Amino acid sequence: MAQTSTDRAATTDFNAYAVSTDKVATFDGQPRRDIPLTRTIEAAALLPDQSISESSFTVPASSTFEACASAFARGTLISTVMGPIAVEDLIPGDLVETHRGPQPVVWIGSTPYLHLPDFAAETTSLSYLLRMPGVGMDQSDLLLGPAARLVVRQDRFADLLNCDAVLAPASDYIDGDRVLRITPPGSVQLYHFALQSHGIIRANGHELESYHPGRVSAAEIGSSVRDMLQSMFPHLGSLEGFGDLAFPRTTRDVIETLRVA
Prior knowledge:
This is Hint domain-containing protein. It is built from five helices and 17 strands. The N and C termini lie far apart (about 45 Å). The longest helix has 9 residues, at about 225-230. The radius of gyration is 19 Å and the shape is globular. It is mostly beta strands. It has helices spanning about 65, 155-160, 220, 225-230, 250-260; strands at about 5-10, 10-15, 40-45, 50-60, 70-75, 75-80, 85, 95, 105-115, 130, 140-145, 150-155, 165-170, 180, 190-195, 200-205, 205-210. About 10% of the residues lie in helices and about 30% in strands.
């Protein structure tokens, strides 16, 4: 583990930006409980002086923000230079094994998942978790959140896309057989982490990506939301500091189209 000092940052509340909650009628005509439109994300960042800044953010419960902290369930083993480390035990500065060699964790965020059956699934992207089985001796079962993306490799990608792999949402591969959509009986803490540059990591032996916000333009999400998101990453001067994606992002449908092309 990296030996770094900890600088406790002030809690940031973005409720001023959030839409107020409303009662929603159910099919039986009775009002449902207020739908929560915010989520708390605990985060730690590796600052340029190698100190660690820890913060708590209350953010809108939208996919833009939930993606920061909803890829890996507590207990997921991440391959590092020191061997497998549970994702909840990673700290900024730890060196994670990637397809480009070891890279330091520069940011890690976490948020709780709790299934609330009274809430409409569309109110939040954290409406499900999924379980992916291990294959062979090097992999074990993996519990993932909605932000997880798998590495998909096909020989024809080199000719069609000028790369040997693409990234696709793990949820695209839910089939009710090997990859299952599940509802845990209790709360599950979810995590995601960013590296010095976007990379492919191994979680329980499976290839997945580290966190990257993707192309987040003010025109698409609004300048206030973009500024809010940027403030969550104090180690960077701007969201552009995340750099390029390691591989293109796409969907399973597009991949299947390429397969038959």
